[in-house]
Design a protein that fits this description.
By secondary structure, this protein is mostly beta strands. 1% of the residues lie in helices and 51% in strands.
């Protein structure tokens, strides 16, 4: 018997005639049903993949073992990192909360991050192969760690050792590898593998990505890379006063973006891929000290289109894309002459403010769009209208504080995590 919601597929003969029907009962209105075909095009079986949770996307991936599994949306939980927050001390033990999550309109600590060494701070985090990875100046984790959902604690990413130096600044995914950009000279676990401020992790071990000898552009220039992005099979990184792209070939293949490119005098703090509305091109946007500029693959120059100003040290520290527009944030009162307090919007033609912005002295260091909402984090105490908030805001009609229980301040980075960090997936 066929019921409402069942899937009915015709089975065809080699002549194209319908010879039978296959009925698949509807276990759920969200199940994924995949037909399996023979080499001559006949339907031989149907694979039904039940949804594990309402975070699944409705898509499936085929593994090398031939098993289909649901794909999650990647927007389950908004996670953020912050600088050191000392909540209590007892016999030298310092309780820190450098990773928190915003879920169901509430801020929660992620696991137990209590250590016996001070001087800690998280600067970047990312989901990689289903795990939450965090990096920064985190001594007990040797500057890079992984969240253990079973024990609700943080472990070293590699038990044998981590980053030798100040720590990681940025994490990105390139060719299935996690790229760690920062200020360090080697990898402790692999005999001080000479990494020169950039290394790749494949889930098991580290490898160099060309930044591993005295000819490294970062090492020679004396500055550190701060941000990186993957685009068209390229890895592009921007540093304090340097921009480079990396292609195949191993050591020595870091190069300038185009012939004749000169290293900028300014510090670069943010990098982003954006589809320019004016040209309908994918462009790489760079931003930092008193500038916003873009570059299109193949171009032999940059296009400058934004100048933050009217504070002692104007700078862009974070960028994202919201409703198709480019959003920049940092420390400024105006951008290209338009009043926009610490956050601004570029639609491809003109700059405009976003709400009232933030109070004078605000420092916005992180932006993200999650479930269609624009979030900002950094170090600030009020929006531009004087409404109090503690370093975490979401744009409604104006910037508002989504929850008042943020532990500490100086929020540094956002990411989205597709699972649940405080409980098992249903």
């Amino acid at each position: 018997m066929v019921s409402e919601g069942d899937l009915v597929l015709p089975l065809l003969s080699t002549e194209g005639k319908v010879v039978a029907h296959r009925v698949i009962p509807a276990a759920s209105d969200k199940d994924i049903v995949i037909p399996a075909l023979t080499t001559d095009g006949k339907i031989t079986a149907l694979k039904v993949i039940p949804f594990a949770s309402d975070k699944d996307s409705g898509l499936a991936v085929l593994g090398v073992d031939g098993i289909l599994t649901p794909v999650k949306t990647g927007g389950g939980v908004l996670v953020f990192a912050s600088n050191v927050t000392i909540l209590s001390t007892d016999m030298g033990n310092i309780t820190l909360h450098f990773c928190q999550q915003y879920k169901d309109d509430k801020i929660e600590q992620i696991g137990d991050d209590s250590f016996t060494t001070g001087g800690l701070g998280a600067l970047a985090l990312i989901e990689y192969k289903g795990d939450l990875i965090v990096t920064g100046n985190i001594g007990p984790l040797q500057n890079i760690g992984i969240y253990n959902e079973a024990t609700k604690t943080y472990d070293k990413l590699d038990p044998a050792g981590g980053l030798n130096g100040t720590g990681g600044f940025d994490l990105t995914i390139w060719r299935g590898l996690m790229i760690i950009i920062g200020n360090y000279a080697g990898i402790i676990s692999q005999g001080l593998l000479d990494a020169r401020d950039g290394v790749a992790w494949d889930g098991t071990q580290y490898s160099t990505i060309g930044l591993d000898d005295a000819t490294s552009p970062w090492f020679t220039n004396g500055d550190n890379p701060e941000q990186s992005i993957s685009y068209n099979d390229l890895l592009i990184a921007s540093g304090a006063r340097i921009i480079r792209k990396y292609e195949d070939g191993g050591v020595g293949t870091w190069a300038k973006l185009f012939a004749g490119d000169t290293d900028p005098a300014e510090f670069n703090h943010a990098i982003l891929l954006w589809k320019d509305k004016a040209t309908d091109k994918d462009v790489i946007v760079f931003a930092g000290e008193a500038f916003v500029k873009s570059w299109f693959l193949g171009d032999t120059s940059y296009t400058s289109f934004g100048v933050p100003a009217d504070v002692s040290s104007p700078q862009i520290l974070a960028m994202t894309v919201y409703q198709g527009d480019l959003i920049v944030a940092g420390e400024f009162e105006t951008i290209s002459g338009v009043t926009a307090k610490s956050v601004a919007r570029w639609n491809g033609t003109v700059w405009s403010a976003l709400g009232s912005g933030f109070a004078t002295g605000a420092r916005i260091e992180a932006l993200i769009v999650s479930e269609g909402r624009l979030f900002a984090g950094g170090l600030f105490s009020a929006n531009g209208n004087g409404d109090n908030m503690n370093s975490f805001a979401v744009l409604e009609v104006d910037w508002v504080e989504p929850d008042t229980t943020l532990l500490g301040a100086n929020l540094k980075a956002f990411t989205e995590f597709s699972g649940n960090l405080d409980e098992e997936d249903p």
